[in-house]
Amino acid sequence: MNAHKQIEKGNKSAFAFIFAVVFLDMLGVNLIVPVQAYLIRQYDTNALTVGLLTVIYSAAQFVAAPVLGMISDRVGRRPVLLICLFGSAIGYLIFGIGGALWILFLSRLIDGITGGNLSVATAYIADVTPPGKRAQNFAMLGAAFGLGFLLGPAIGGVLGNINLALPAFVACGLSLLAMLVGFFVLPESLTMPTRAANGREDANPITAILTLFRLPGLGLLLATMFIFLFAFGGMTSNISVFLIEKFGVQPFQFAIVFVLAGIVNIIVQGGLIRILVPRFGEKQLATAGLAILAGSWLGMVNVPVMWMVYLLAAVSAIGSALAMPTLNALASNRVAQNQQGKLAGVSASLNSLANVIGPVLAGVAYDLVAPTAPYWASAIFLFLAFILIIRVDGTKRASVLEMPD
After folding, report:
1. How far apart are CA 5 and CA 9, in angstroms?
2. Looking at the domain that runs over 2-184+201-390, which CATH code has it been given?
3. Helix (H, G, I), strand (E, B), or coil: what is residue 334?
4. What is the spatial distance between Cα 39 and Cα 274, in angstroms, rounded to a whole number?
5. What residues contact 254, with CB distance under 8 A and at least 6 apart?
6. For 353-370, how does the pLDDT look when each residue is reduced to its tens digit (9 = 90+)?
7. Domain locations in the chain?
8. Cβ contacts of residue 208 below 8 Å, gap of 6+?
């Protein structure tokens, strides 16, 4: 009994550190959001350049995340996580120093590669969490994500008023701090008997994605996750333009929308999920989340007044906060412990791909079809995801070494 309590206490301490790592990582990413465009305009005033900076980050993450996840399956989570934190610190440092446009692109390339540490952090949580509690702990990671998204731009804006490069240097310091603390306090979560022996062919992100998609049940879940992320990324990318043209909103009104969504996200993922999962199960909550999202986006099509946008933003946040952690948990419960890194890497890679394709297609639909087209399209895609998740067996569990290498 004492040994069991010690293990449980150690797992809680490790989870607390991973929570802090994810929070600091998202805080660092969002610290530079308010100053990014201003730094780029020192070298290029083309708006496309700002978008390309985001694209290169997501593209690098698409390639790197599965590779980092699979490496962590083989050598352990701890060394990969610490090296990634150091790499992110280097990326932020280069971004702050600047000096030329290609240096800014290099910095985002480096941070995109090492930004795959989120996939390793997700795999770590799967290692130390029983299958029945993974949705709750993944939700807590989502709360850390939301907290960083909420505080990062605000703090970055204040620091940017002092010096445009200061947010990047602070983000660098946060990454180094997390790395140093982790070096001394973070234990390895993956034991030697459960480590995988991945081959070189597994380093290809396309191969890794196709391998997992072919597995019974898991392919449906990954397809559902990609459709959800694709639709979500497309909708959020042009909501600012939509609201400006429809209501003539001011910057502070945008801030209210995102702050409100962030608060709701933290409440749901940080607290309510722990109550709802034992009662309803992951599949039911994921299904409900997708339905709520689709309804809120359809509501946005004909919203008559601005105050209703705030309401719909809160409803949309509830939907995404219910869907994302439960979809992650359903997928995680279908693979063995020695494949959690590969799964987390593939999930992060799909997220990056969705964040590249979704905004582009939504922008084209907005410009060439109608301002409401992205919302109709997103709702239709979510309905497709809704149909897919209904077909998933919500009770399936993998044994520790069930899945072959």
Report:
1. 6
2. 1.20.1250.20
3. coil
4. 42
5. 240, 243
6. 887 788 778 878 887 888
7. 2-184+201-390
8. 66, 70, 202, 342, 345, 346, 349
Q: What 3-state class would DSSP assign to 68?
A: helix
- Predicted TM-score (pTM) of the model is 0.70
Distance CA 341, CA 21 (A): 17
Q: Taking 60 as the threshold, does the pLDDT of residue 54 lie above it?
A: yes
**Whether pLDDT at 238 is above 80:** no
> Up-side HSE of residue 103: CA atoms within 13 Å toward CB?
13
Show the tokens assigned to 322: 């219910």
List phi, psi (to 5°) of 195. -80, 145
| Cα 325 from chain centroid (whole Å) | 10
Strands (E), 130-234: none
Q: Alpha-carbon dihedral of residues 347, 351, 353, 355, nearest 10 degrees?
A: 180
Q: How many helices (H) and strands (E) does the chain have?
A: 16, 0
Confidence tier at 86 by pLDDT (50, 70, 90): very high
The string of DSSP codes covering 261-330 is HHHHHHHIIIIIHHHHHHHH-HHHHHHHHHHHHHHHHHHHHT--SHHHHHHHHHHHHHHHHHHHHHHHHH
For the record, the structure tokens of 339 come out as: 């494949």
Mean of pLDDT values over 128-142: 78
HEC sequence for 124-160: HHHHHCCHHHHHHHHHHHHHHHHHHHHHHHHHHHHHH
Q: Nearest 5°: CA angle at 329, between 327 and 335?
A: 110
